[in-house]
Amino acid sequence: MTLCQLFLQPDAAYSCISELGELGIVQFRDLNPNVNSFQRKYVNEVRRCEEMERKLRFLETEIKKDELPIYDPEDNPDAPKPREMIDLEATFEKLDHELKEINTNADALLRNFNELTELKHNLTMTQGFFDDAEMAFTPAHNRNQRDSDDDQVQLLYEYSMISHNKLGFITGVVPRERMVAFERMLWRVCRGNVFLRQAEIPELIEDPVSGEKLHKTVFVVFFQGEQLKNRVQKICEGFRANIYPCPENPHERRELAMGVMTRLEDLTVVLSQTQDHRQRVLAATSRNLRTWQIKVKKIKAIYHTMNMFNNDVARKCLIAECWAPVSELDRIQLALRKGSEASGGGTVSSVLNRMVTREQPPTHHKLNKFTQGFQNLVDAYGVATYREINPMPFVLITFPFLFAVMFGDAGHGILVTIFALWMVLKERSLKDKWRNQEVWTIFFGGRYIILLMGIFSIYTGIIYNDVFSKSLNIFGSSWRVRFGDDTLAKHDSVMLEPTPYNYTRSGDYRQMFSGTPYPIGLDPVWQLADNKITYTNSVKMKFAIIIGITQMGFGLFLSLWNHLHFNHRHAIYLEFLPQIIFLACIFFYLIILIFYKWTSFDGSKATDAPSLLIHLINMILFSYKTDPPSAAVFYTGQKQFQTFLILLAVLCVPWMLLGKPIYRIVMNKRRANYSTVTNHAAGNDSDVEEQHQDEFHDPAEKRGVVLDADVRDTDTEDMLDDEHSHQQHHQHEVEMSEVWVEQGIHTIEYFLGCISHTASYLRLWALSLAHAQLSEVLWHMILHLGLSMNGYGGAIASFFVFMPWSSLTVFILLLMEGLSAFLHALRLHWVEFQSKFYKGEGYPFVPFSFRLLLDEAPVEA
């Protein structure tokens, strides 16, 4: 990476930045950090882009409201030129204004249509009320039967006729759920002096105000007097009832109803035409909407980037600073040349100038869709320091392998692999399908990680010979059960001797073990053994120790690579050597003993094999007892050799603790001596120059001016020297105290960490044991119930128990246990592996890229 300076003409800056955005290999720096965002040069253009984005969001909302498809562009459109921005603004303004006008007119027409619909129902049902009332007002001798409502109408009518006043009435429509409270309120406020008739509208009616479709009820309230009229009107307003006029004359009501029907027919035609026009506008917009959104995003990004530049008024150019890969400088210059030509071509082309700086550059990794997920795992711990070794190529293999060691089941690994293969093969169609679902985004982003975890799980499942908690006998077991029926009938279990030749008490020859191990993985006979867990625990525990120590040692050798690259020669002798010697003296030696025990003790000598744990403890304590067989030595001269290893490991502690601080003290003294010699040489040069100047000046002038100058310079130099020496001494004390503390912490952390990190790798054994036992429990407690039955009943039972077994397998063993193994593998890499060589104190290279911009803020289809 290199820091570059760009000199751009104002007219060509837009086109040049557009070309660099298409390349996506330049990270610009903000040269105006103290300038407010609203005070920058191109803030008006950014605001115009934000206004265009607002209008495009409005158009997109309207298109989705009508459920119209939005078409994606076939090609990636280029950023439009600055003069095209005016045309885009005019187009968006026209569509925005036209669509808002259509919506306003459509809303007004629809509101009017809903009001007329309510009025139509109101007139129809009110006419029925009045027809019932006329029947109720007939003389008593012409009526054979009256209900209570008709009696109340008759009483009101007779009372009004006696008082020479007519009954008043108000008609309207109210939502059905409010009708009970509305009637109760009328009764209480008017004290029973009103009469209410109601009828439900059979179909849903769209409310003119809210636009919601509701069940509504038509009502007619009869009253007498202005006081009751005012009360009824206030109650109707309180319940948001829509009041409609209703003439008293039947002929006028009939004419009004006919006029309402005619107007409804006309409004239906007008609404249909309005909706067709709206559909045509939105359909034409949907074909270009995505292209417009991409163009506006690119314009906004270009002007936002140009706001980070300096405007050199004297040179009439824009000055920018950016980080870029050295290997891409030719492409950057070509893009600048292309941008200058696209802007109309000026006499002065854009200039790219490399700068020299001590600032740490950003860290840039060349990645693809396969390695991106693994790099995200590493970057979650910390972005690599510039030029520091990147753990990702090693994590790509070790991470899924450690996961598989804890998840080792070939059956479960096949399910995980099938799921990952489905995501990989269908990635184009699945990329944007559930983009808003956070959990799905995590799974899809790590599809290649899941694929490798599944493949490695199949491998470790074959090594463990574990398929859904069962073993496969593909090559035939190396063990033979050669006991008679009488022996098998007397005992619940029999002992299989591991020796290839075994003689019974009667002298009969019985061969139980062939002497040739199972070709791949664990022998299937262990599936039937009572001591299966004891045996697999021993093997898996030793494998965990071997894997952990090997990975930690590999991490130390990667730190050697860092030291050589950064030319830290002293760190090789003062840090790497004591670290690797300490690790080798105790833990590498333990691995050698493990392999030595495996290869030197067979079945006939198994009872005499020393215990590795007791052996390691005795090695630390310098205790060599031969009384119990487990404490016996492995080879002659073991005591002297192990004593040498322990003393060498103890020597590494002060070596690492004192080496670096002493080195810093020596280097500080050398710098101080070098600065003293340099200052003395500089002082002699100034005396010679002063004598040379005295030959050309008047002696009196020299005495009058130079003497004063000498006094002033001497006082100033003495003051500066005292201050500098004080600051340098204070800085030296603070710096060395920090070095001592830091090195002490680092030493304690490493030597104790070697023990704790080695023990931490035992989680590989623990989680593998837990996964195997859970799988076996699910098999025996659920699926075995159906498989143990015979006949048709067993088939039916197997069908019913398969669903809970498969569900628990997916949710507990695949998801929960898989997540647990994933997190533990991640911890082993972050803490135990990367802590040996990886600092992660850098910051990422985030280039100005249109592709990244569109990926981070995708346009939803």
Automatic annotation (TrEMBL):
Membrane topology, as annotated: Multi-pass membrane protein
GO molecular-function terms, A-Z: ATPase binding; proton-transporting ATPase activity, rotational mechanism
Broad class of the protein's primary localization: membrane
Keywords per UniProt: Coiled coil, Hydrogen ion transport, Ion transport, Membrane, Transmembrane, Transmembrane helix, Transport
Keyword set includes Kinase: no
Bilayer-crossing regions: 394-422, 442-464, 543-564, 576-596, 644-663
GO biological process, one term: vacuolar acidification
One GO cellular component, as annotated: vacuolar proton-transporting V-type ATPase, V0 domain
Coiled coil: 35-119
Keyword Transmembrane applies: yes
A Pfam family assignment: V_ATPase_I
Localization: Membrane
Family statement: Belongs to the V-ATPase 116 kDa subunit family.
Function comment: Essential component of the vacuolar proton pump (V-ATPase), a multimeric enzyme that catalyzes the translocation of protons across the membranes. Required for assembly and activity of the V-ATPase.
The protein's name in its UniProt record: V-type proton ATPase subunit a
Organism this protein belongs to: Adineta steineri
